[in-house]
Amino acid sequence: MGAIVTKVEQMELPRASTVCALALVSYFFITCGVAYDIIQEPPAVGAEKDPVTGRLKAVMFMPYRINGQYTMEGMAGGLMYSMGGLGLIVLDMAHRRDMEAKYRKVLMAMGGAMVLVGYFAVMAFLRIKMPSYLARVHEGW
Amino acid sequence: MAHFNAYGWGFKALLLLFISIMAFSIRLFSVVKYESVIHEFDPYFNYRVTQFLTKEGFYSMWDWFDDRTWYPLGRVIGGTVYPGLIFTAGSMYKILHALNIPLHVQEVCVFTAPLFSALCALSAYGLVSECRSDGAGLAAAAMVAMVPSYISRSVAGSYDNEGVAIFALVNVFYTFIKTINTGSLGWAVLNLLSYFYMVLSWGGYSFVINLLPIYCLACVASGRMTGRHYLAFAPLVFMGTLLAASVPVVGFNSVLMSEHFGAFFTCIVLHAALALRFVRGLLPQRQFEAAVRLAVTAAAAVGAVVVTLVVGYVVRSPTFGWTGRSLTLLDPTYASRFVPIIASVSEHQPPSWPSYITDLHAAVLLAPAGIIGCFKNLNNGALFLVLYGITAVYFSGVMVRLMLVLAPAACCLAGVAVSDILNTLCCSLKAHGAVLPLPALARGGGDGAGGSAAAGKGGAPGAAARRGGRGGSDGGDGGVLSSVLGREWNPLPKTVAIAGFVGVVGLLMSYTIHCIGVSADAYSAPSIVMQAPQEDGSYYVFDDFREAYAWLRHNTDPETKVASWWDYGYQTTAMANRTVIVDNNTWNTSHIATVGRAMASPEAKAWKIFRSLDVEYVFVVFGGVIGYSGDDINKFLWMVRIGGGVYPDIKEADYLTKDVRIGLFADLSAAQYGQRGYDRVRGYVIGRTDVTLKYFEEAFTSQHWMMRIYRVRDRPLRDSAKPKSARQRAAAAAAA
Question: Any stretches that span the bilayer, and where are they (chain A) (predicted)?
Fold first, then answer.
């Protein structure tokens, strides 16, 4: 009994950076659509027949359905989301006072690139998947 | 922040007014495009109950037993509905009529949700400005006003619980954090009343009553527990449970169901932690440690007994004390294995990855940065935002409908991130002197007095004071800068800061464009009316549903019973005003399974089932002519699954071949359709074109063949002279 009490007194809380890292990893998994993959069990990639040669081609994005995905497609999308978020975190690290000058430029460039690539990649994926997205925005009713 | 003087206060109020107007107007697309009509299915039920409330009064609605649904079982409306939305709309109606503004109750219902989204944006401002700063609050409020996930459930016409419940959710959190920050009893009372309004409005109150204990436990664990936390949380457990129990739909669930046990456990932990602190103040160190060891031993013994009792109680129920829907959140595979009705609702499916970007757009990219930003200046409110965000992300990952709960969290975190980024960029710009030469008064700075002194003078002395004031404020800005960014800042290079500023503004602009585009296109469709674009830009309107309900209303006896699949029950009772067998409440699975069985059986068996339920009219929805893919044939497998869940003689495997022809259902859809032949939804020609119905007769088919109403005959048609089959000949020979 005494051992348990001393162990409880000696227990430390995890560091903030550990908790942060865990939160970001779980964010990645959830935005990949992991629960959808567990329940609906889609294939990793889809397949369609090539009309000319008759062989099966792999299809990355499940077309026309906003509530359906293949597993790899989900991972790609989740990766881009998390990359965008991480890019902002890297940009924040870049302007600390104790960061050496040679690293600052690298971190700023990397952070900016991650944010931009993440955002534009997600938009590109979405347009590949759903050709009608925002296609009719400026037409009158 | 110290920058705000009187102009700042007025500017903030003006911005909040604009945000509220934007939140209200962006939800009006469907009223402009179609008409002011109630959408979807569930809102029709709420509308019907609101009509009853405004006509008959409060106590009649509280005691109402509805015999026009779930025939022959009926439904106790007072005890099975979350009344918050209905009371809200009813009160607004009464107030307007008392002021001699005679709005029809439908208009009040249609515009309730946009009004409460404007209020939700204001609550989000309050929450984030308590947790962080006014600037972050304004950014969060602007994002919450426009976020597409919230728009989808609160457009004008979507008269559903979530329209007011999300406002109640953010409001509870705002009053909770305000109580913790101020420690005032008045705010604690407001907190309790907000929680009561949340329980009245939505079943999602169990999220609130589980998140607040998690937050209090995190505060105890990280050592920031104070008496103010107790002041905010304890009334929710004691009085809040009583208030929740006084809502009939919750009733004794507030003490018997596992959803509330977290709150009780945390209450005990809070009491223990505060008692520990009090005793530590009284005793010297060594005696304190001995007392702690004694108390821990005793508590472990008592705790073991209590845990055994609770576990014994909980294990006896097959769902461990949780309700079915809550258990689906914790174990996503539960519904698909055991309760097909919960699994069949498309809102209960887990989301795929594009749902995040279309429903949240920029917020999903900024939320992780917001979590880091909260961790940097961790105070009570910031810790709460982080926990809210993480739990909401998990629940949204399990069920698409709960993206709605994630939306305010993601927007609040994104507001914090945007505010931090803009602070860094603008302070870097100021540090490089790259600022516009504005008069000292509008520049603000820490020297409001210097500014007003400059205004008070005028002429050369005023100009000198202004220049001096500006120089002073530069140094003052430097001091303010370092306090804003912390000691670890370096100003970014000028070009980078300008590029970053343009980038952030560009991101927010694309967020706005996305929100407006998505809400105009995707989320403003009242599913009761459909449009198809034509080549010349105009739209062709399909109004088949209302046509069919109006036919039922005008051409059938008021006491007839109508059977259909449960999706259309609420609309039938509200618009056609006839008694239905099953409706969207789905509280009785075996009754729904009976209807499913009838739909999946051959004509004679189905006729017997419907006659036993006194049904006179049956209708099905068929989308083959116009290509409407949400019709009943696509839902047919769910009818079979749900029917098979209760009646073991319906086996799903029998229906999975392409020849889905065994059931009544297919016959009803295809009768007399043979001449056309081609089914646009499924994409093939209908196989059997010679369907003749003996037990049902076609009563009405709407203009585009979408709704087909059949009358159940009193006795079957007699066959014209048909030669006897081999079996009948053998039976006649045996009898002779």
Answer: 20-39, 74-94, 106-126
Q: How do residues A79-135 score in pLDDT, each as one tens digit?
A: 998 888 888 888 888 877 677 778 888 888 898 899 999 989 988 888 888 776 665
Domain count, chain A: 1
Q: Select the residue from B214, B219, B276, B365 to test the A interface by mutation, using most A Cβ atoms within 10 A.
A: B365
Q: Which domain holds residue A34?
A: 14-129
A82 in any annotated domain: yes
Which residues of chain B make contact with A73, given a CB cutoff of 8 A? Answer: 353
- pTM of the predicted model, to two decimals? 0.82
Return the sign of the alpha-carbon dihedral for residues B218, B222, B224, B225: positive
Tell whether B390 lies on the interface with A, counting CB pairs under 8 A: yes
In A, which residues are within 8 Å of B514 by CB distance? 134
Amino acid identity, residue B35?
A: E
| Contacts with B2 (C-beta within 8 Å, 6 or more apart), sequence order | B446, B480
DSSP 3-state of B139: helix
Domain positions in chain B are 542-735
The interface pTM score, or ipTM, of the predicted complex is: 0.74
Q: Cβ separation of A78 and B353 shorter than 8 Å? A: yes
Contact A16 B346 (CB under 8 A): no
Name every residue whose Cβ is closer than 8 Å to that of residue B410 and which is 6 or more positions away in sequence: B147, B360, B363, B364, B367, B389, B392, B393
Nearest residue, CB atoms, A88 vs list B358, B369, B518: B369
Q: Is the pLDDT of residue B335 over 90?
A: no
The verdict on residue A141 lying in a domain is: no
What residues does B700 pair with on adjacent strands?
B709
Chain B residues near residue A116 by CB distance under 8 angstroms = 503
Q: Which residues contact B321 (CB under 8 A, 6 or more apart)?
A: B256, B257, B258, B261, B313, B314
Question: Which amino acid makes up residue B557?
Answer: D
Q: Which residues in chain B (496-535) have CB-CB distances under 8 A to chain A?
A: 496, 500, 503, 507, 513-514, 517-518, 520-521
**Pair B633, B681: CB distance under 8 Å:** yes
Whose structure tokens read 């959830």?
A30
B712 lies within 8 A of chain A by CB:
no
> Does A74 reside within a domain?
yes
Which of B354, B507, B537 faces A77 most closely, judged by CB atoms? B354
Cα separation, B665 vs B659, whole angstroms: 13
Centre a 10 Å sphere on the Cβ of residue A21 and count the other Cβ atoms it contains. 12
In a domain, A2, yes or no: no
**How is residue A107 written in tokens?**
């971190």
